[in-house]
Recover the amino acids of this structure.
């Protein structure tokens, strides 16, 4: 079962995506901020994909990506950003992520994007 690290501070979005993706056959590990997610990764968690919000407390998505990209064991984990923030293409390039999903999320687009990197 593919593991997805879901990094989202909005409780409603996090819980809804967790439930939906679990029903679709994924093992979802929810995290409410970048610091918690990064700590889990450094402790040895190795998801097939990271779904990452940008605007969060403690460590935002930009800070998370900076740390992830310079940590050898973590840099190769694919990341899909979910955000209502800013210019999609500019941020996708700046962050070096595989995809950028605009909020409010289209659940079918989320699922098809996830399936590019992992299959339940």
């Amino acid at each position: 079962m593919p593991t997805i690290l879901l990094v989202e501070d909005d409780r409603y979005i996090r819980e809804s995506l967790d439930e939906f993706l679990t029903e679709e056959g994924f093992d979802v590990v929810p995290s409410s901020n970048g610091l918690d997610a990064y700590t889990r990764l450094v402790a040895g968690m190795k998801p097939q994909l990271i779904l990452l919000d940008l605007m969060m407390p403690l460590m935002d998505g930009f800070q998370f990506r900076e740390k992830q990209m310079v940590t050898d064991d973590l840099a190769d984990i694919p990341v899909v950003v979910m955000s209502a923030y800013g210019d999609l293409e500019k941020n996708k390039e700046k962050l070096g992520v595989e995809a950028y999903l605009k909020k409010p999320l289209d659940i079918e687009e989320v699922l098809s994007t996830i399936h590019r990197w992992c299959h339940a």
User: Anything to note?
Assistant: The chain is about 40% helix and 20% strand. The mean pLDDT is 89. Residues 3-115 form a domain with the Rossmann fold fold (CATH 3.40.50.2300). The chain has one domain: 3-115.
